[in-house]
Every structure is written in C-alpha cells, then in structure tokens.
Amino acid sequence: MRTLLGDYLLQHLQQASEGTLPARVFNCLRDAILEGILAPNTRLPASRDLANELHVSRNTVLNAYEQLRAEGYIQAHTGRGTWVSETLPESYIQVSTTPTYAAATKEEITHTLSHRGASLLQHAAASPYQWGAFVPGAPDVTEFPHAEFNRIKSRLSRQPEIANLIYSNAGGCIELRHALADYLRIARSVNCETDQIIITEGIHQAVDLVSRALCDLNDHVWIENPGYWGAKNILRINGLNIIPMPVDAEGIIPEEQPSTPPRLIFVTPSHQYPLGSHLSLARRRKLLDLAKQHGSWIIEDDYDSEFRFSGQPYPSLQGLEDNPPVIYIGTFSKTIYPALRIGYMVVPKNLVQPLRTISAELYRGGHLLTQRALAEFISEGHYAAHIRRMRLLYSKRRKFLIELIHRYLGDVFVHEFNHDAGLHLVLKLPDHANDVEISALALSRGVNVRPLSQYYSGVDTPIQSGLLLGFACVQEQDMTFAFSILRQCLIENGIELFPQNR
C-alpha cells in the first residue's frame, strides 16, 4: 500500500539530482523531519515497504535509516519499529531550516488586493470572539438537544440516500423545504409553498445571491442606519451604492419621493439590528407601496423574530399581502447554533427558478444529510420545543441584565428602543462617551462588548454612542462578574453613573 511519506519522497527525489541515491534518500528523509512533515514520535515505514514504494533496493533505505539513527534523528526499538526522535539533534536547534516571513505592511496589502478586496478588508468587522460576556447575538449552544439531533443524523448516515450525497440544484433538501414551509406559515404568517424556499448557508449567502442576481453595478440599495455591517459589506463588494436610511422607534424611515429609487431595500422589521425597534404597520405598507411603484425588491431579514419575550409576536412583512415584492430570509444560527450554516430564503414565485439555478451555479449546495436531519428534527416537534425552552431562558437572562443596569448604572443607560425581544440589548451612553475606547478597554479585561457607533454609515445621520450587550450565552453568576468589570471601565472613562441604590 502506498503511504503519504512514499508520495512525498518520490516527489522530492525527482528534484534532488546531486549525490548518490542513498545520500538523496537520507537528505529527503532528514528534510521531512526538520520541516515537520514527520513529527516527533512518528513511526517510519518498514525498510522493505519503503524500498518497494520508492523502487530502490532495501539496502538503500537501510543505509539512510542507519545514518539518520547515527545523527539522532530517529530511534530503532526492537519489536516496535523505527520512530522519529522526540528531541531533534542539537545542530537543528542551532540552525533551523524553517523559513521566516516578514508581516506585510498595510500598503503592501492594499497594492496586492483588488480595489474590492481592499475595500472589504478595510470594512471587515467579523470578531474573533464569538462566545462569552457580552458577545451580541451569540446563542447558548450548550442548551441545544445535541443528543436528539445527533441520533437523527446518525440513523440517516448509516444508509444515506444518493440524492443526499451529490450536488443539489433543487434549492436544498426537499424535506427541509417542506418542513420550513409548514413552520413559517404557522409561526411567522409567511405566505409560501415548498417550491418557493431556497436553502442557503446563512444570511450572508442569501444577500450575496440576491445582490448578484437582481442588481447591476452602482444600483442603489437602502439599508438601515445603524445597520448590520455584514450585509453592508456584501452589498458593497458586489458593487452596489449603499444609501443609509435613518431609523426611529417605528423602524426605517423611507424617502417619500426618492430621486433615484432603490433596487433593493434591506430591513430587519421584527427586531431592528442593532437598536431593537419594531417596524410599524404603517411603515411596512409604505415600503411595500414604494417597492411596487419603483420596481424594487425588499429583503426582509427576520432577525431574532423567534425570541420575543412579551406581547404578541409580530407577523412577517412578507405575509401582509399575496405575492409581495419581498424576499424573506432567515437562519438557524440563533435558534440552533451558528456553525450549522443553514439558512433559507422565501422568494416570489417568478424568481424561484432563476434564483435556484443561479444559487446552484455559484454555490453548489451541500450539507444535504444535515438538512435532512434538520427536517425530521422540525417535523417531530423538537425545534419548536427547543425555541420555547430558550425563550424562557433568554427572557430570564435579559431581565437579570436589565436589573444590573438599573441597579449599578441608572435608568438612563437603557436605550429607548429596548423592546422585550432579541439576544442583545443596547446600553445607551452619553453623547460625549467614546464607545470604541470603552469597548477596547473592556476587551482587554476579558469582556466583549461592541461599540454602537461602528454600526453607522454616512455623515448625515447623528451617531449615538452605546454598547451592544449580548446576554443569551451568559449565565447569571458570570454576568454579574463581567458587568462589574464593564462598570469599572465606564467609570475610568469619566462616565457619570446614576445607580438606584446611590
């Protein structure tokens, strides 16, 4: 049987032309050890087997092994074979063959990348910190019923259907699309049939697909201000002209008579991200009328719709009328876990086949076994039960965090759009506060909050100072400790506090 080491040596022996064959075999083996191809305590193939792979005599391999052993690179153990030494020779420690590379400067990176790539890098905001206090939007992934979900996946994996092991050009697993259509009609009042659903790998892919398929370069797109940076970056790199639209307590404020109508309108109507306001019925109807009048498409990101902790849940914008100019998008990242990478779109009937074909051409849909398992998980009622449990847990944690704010900071620090929903809330700061500096100081002490000011675009909208505090993945005892650190960071930045117990 061919080994990876044999393949490696055959390639490098062709490049090594100097010296005798035994010397060349020795040098290639030594280099493999020094470069980490053969890690310490790795067992080497038997000399006879390696000789057969390299098409050389066994004595050639034995001579190379003997020289490696004499120089301390390998050790032979009677009855156990030949192994790479745990500690390399002193000569290697003094002179390493591992190359070093100087870090590229900002100017070098800018000149190397395309204009689009450099722009994306400049606006990149994805955080390496995705867990703990107070990461916004991070669900408590430890509470998901992994055993139940894995039981379904394991059963399906034992004898998988061929259709779940090949590329998909049907918009995703039919069972999952059917289960989602049933769920969305009941839970979100979405008007849809199974064929209208396209499975994606999340919100980013959905926005990318829509902007590529429905827009040309420099088309206008309205986006909430402040708004989700991830959507803005995708729209920007696809060459669209982003028009930030202000947000108030009723959601996005559209222009009455736009001089240049938007091709796309990106909104988070159920729970505006990041401020938390709800798009009023009057604004929803105004957006629908405007979109129909100007031939625009509304992208409805139903962010955090599952986690409303009081009052009646708001129905989807898409469900207000039949066949509206709305592309409804959602994801399982918050309700199950982000690494699942499964989202979905509900598209108007006249867009189903074009978007399905373009999606298959661009992304080659996959994860069909996982999609199939998720379909059963939903159909058997586990998904709805999980959401109910998490709604209670998150409501409790949100209430606890608000009590901490009232007790140790004061009522004025709770943002006025702070509706009883979502996985984060906004800590309002005085206008003079530098939320970027405060968040950096908190991060240096192990507390992750995000500055509200960095979610704003343009120069016309007044920028509010604040901090996004996620509470979903933080237990109460950890929340109290982290909040005390954040409070100290506010004090050190000259923020006057008005606690209730003062």
Automatic annotation (TrEMBL):
Pfam families associated with the record: Aminotran_1_2, GntR
HTH gntR-type domain sequence ranges: 19-87
Keyword Cytoplasm assigned: no
One Gene Ontology molecular-function label: DNA binding
Alphabetized CDD domains for the sequence: AAT_like, WHTH_GntR
Keyword annotations from UniProtKB, A to Z: DNA-binding, Pyridoxal phosphate, Transcription, Transcription regulation
Domain of life: Bacteria
Family that this chain belongs to: In the C-terminal section; belongs to the class-I pyridoxal-phosphate-dependent aminotransferase family.
PANTHER family attached to this UniProt entry: HTH-TYPE TRANSCRIPTIONAL REGULATORY PROTEIN GABR
Full protein name: HTH gntR-type domain-containing protein
Naturally occurring in which organism (per UniProt): Acinetobacter dispersus
